[in-house]
Amino acid sequence: MKKILILTASIGALGAAAPSFGTDLAGQPVKVKAPLLPVAAPIIDWSGYYIGVNGGWGTSHNCWDFNGVTPEGCHNSTGGTIGGQIGYRWQIFNMVYGIEGQGNWADFSGSNVSTAFPANTVGTTTDAFGLLTGHIGYAFNAVLLYGKGGAAVTSNNYLLNSVASGTELANSNDVRWGGVLGAGAEVSLTPTWSAGVEYNHLFMQRSNISFPGLLGTDRAHQDIDLITARLNYKFGSPFAK
Description:
- This protein is mainly β.
- It has one helix at about 1-25, and strands at about 50-65, 70-90, 95-115, 120-140, 145-160, 170-190, 195-205, 205-210, 215-235.
- The protein contains one helix and nine strands.
- It has an eight-stranded antiparallel barrel with strand order 1-2-3-4-5-6-7-9.
- The protein is elongated.
- The relative contact order is 0.18.
- Pfam families: OMP_b-brl (PF13505).
- Belongs to the Omp25/RopB family.
- Keywords: Cell outer membrane, Membrane, Signal.
């Protein structure tokens, strides 16, 4: 009889404690894992000094006039080019401004039979050029589109050959100044490396060519078109925080 009373009292005590225990569990805060916040894309800053290399293809359109009056015809001098550039950019909001110097070796060569003197060929070789330009562009974060303009200089050799034998009759050379207009696109690969492609048109001043031992001079007109790929390394802005 005692065992039955003890068992009945124990069951009653457990029944009384159960609601209180349930209440304690219900009052505990539920731990919910917070959702991961989206990671914002990094903002590219194009400001800073940079140095790089470039290479590609070019064509020089050359027209000769004997004594500046009699046409001798035109020819395209085509070939490859490789060189380097150094410059500085500063970015204000999405606008990017810059200045750049570029120097290239070139191998643009071509010739034509003179229309004024059919026994001779006239030829032009451009072996180097340099550019000093200002840039203005717009940055779409990691992509930069820009235009450029400034001064250009070319180093040229002029040849007069015999059509019959192919032997050289005379040669001359000069350094010619002019202007350049161009445009390009560049993509940021890392915080320091970027790559792009660029087009430039050089419009050079007319030049008088004289050949030693020959009478008269030739007046030559020259335009050059360039397409180059570029790779730049940026050192960063001295004003960066």
